[in-house]
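fyi for ur records
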Amino acid sequence: MDSKIGMTLTRHIYEGERVHPEATGELTGILNQIALAAKIVSREVRKAGLAEILGFTGQRNVQGEEVRKLDQFANDVFMTAFSHLGHFCIMASEEVDKPIPMPVDGRPDGGRYSVVFDPLDGSSNIDANVGVGSIFAVHHKISPGRDGTITDLLQPGRRLAAAGYVVYGSSTMLVLSTGHGVHAFTLDPSVGEFLQSHHHIRIRERGTIYSANEGNYPYWSQGVRRFVSHMKQHDPTTGRPYSSRYIGSMVADIHRTLLYGGIFMYPADSKDPKKPHGKLRLLYECSPIAFLLEQAGGAASDGHRPILDIQPTEVHQRTPFFAGSVENVREVETFIARYDAVRA
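which gave:
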């Protein structure tokens, strides 16, 4: 058995600091606070029906989506966790229209990091007791001066200092990377600690599972439709037809893809002219997931280029998203280049 299995999250972070003497310890504090927020959200998700926090608040968020009570609760928990650390100069949430500047708390240099997060991804499924999750991404501050600016948020994923997600399912698991591989920690409720359950996760080079909302098939580009049809064709040499698995909670679908291999897809579609680039947000959904997948040996693309190479221009910017095993992602890029170029 790997000696790392069963290690607490706190010890894992501390040992990472020992390997890097230049570390200040700030990232350790950030990750420990994220773990605390995840424990609180996990507790409420598990008793949501009993605590009467299912259903809607009656408000809509910046995305135009109805805000669920658990969305608001999770957002408040993560904002509180990040607000009092003194490590952040600015933050952004899926649930909040504009970036949120952070007080400098007397520090001469201000906070050294920025953070973006989706407090409760997949919350439309929560009333049906389907797994949901939280996503976070941490960047180093790059703007001059003490105060954070939007520049500190609008950074390509290649520059991430840390990223991860928490999946609230049959168990609560925190999956994260600080640029040195991907590790997963499962919450043991009996001791109230995240214990390492997966050490240095590696995704398969090719998988035989695809995950997509095929209800949008008629609205996809020709290249994406041909790729999906290709995956359904019989070919024993490549393991086709592939299996289709789609939960509808991105974190849950990505978690399965990371562990089993294959591809998760949320292409652009023509169904909603207000969302020509798809539904998923670049900064706090796609970039952190792409960072994790590349650290695990996988890939993530908008169909033409790596997600991590995209320079964001807006906090709530959307992008097509194809993520998973390297060979599967490269294959969909080939179909898009071949057929969508002809269509154009």
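The chain has two domains: 9-198, 209-343. thats all i got for now
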